[in-house]
Amino acid sequence: MKLKSFFSNIFSGLLLLLVILMFVNPSVKATMMQGLMKIGFFRPSLPKTTESAPLAADVSFDDGSGKEILLSSLKGKVVFLNFWATWCPPCRAEMPSLNTLYEKYRNDKNVIFLTVDTDGNYKKAKAFMQKHKYSLPLYVATSRIPGELLERSIPTTVILNKKGQIAFRHEGAADYSNAEFIKYFGEFIKK
What we know:
Layout: H1 2-24, H2 26-38, E1 60-62, E2 68-70, E3 78-84, H3 89-105, E4 111-117, H4 122-131, E5 138-141, E6 156-160, E7 166-171, H5 179-190
Parallel strand pairs: 3-4, 4-5
Antiparallel strand pairs: 1-2, 1-5, 3-6, 6-7
Protein name: Redoxin domain-containing protein
Keywords: Redox-active center
Organism: Chitinophaga tropicalis
């Protein structure tokens, strides 16, 4: 009986320590969320239709070298747009899945990926990407981001179809490397 109580106390102590670490260390929380993603949690809810909303408002982005890109100039391509920050545990948690999706489509001339650091600190975001060996193209916004693209929550992911219309929008962490999402994303490329 004492041995069972001893192990119960040890387990409770470790569980409490893990909960505390999740609140004070973004990396621990991100790692826990990544584990949950691998077992099927945090899948983005996919609309039953690929019908699209109105055209996205124009925004300009900088790629860190001073080269600006206008969202409106990307019509004719499917745009995968992700708003994130280095300090955000859910953003960190979904990064591996974003990178996996990007690697799958990086050579497709019909697809553009924009991962946008919402803090506007390109150097810090680039250091984070390099540290974790992510190959995602990194940008910062150089104009106001309209609410239909980003409200108050990060991460936020938006897909624009080839006409420049908002076809998908998801707030919160998600696993974008699961087969169901990859099939869904592929439908925009085919159109």
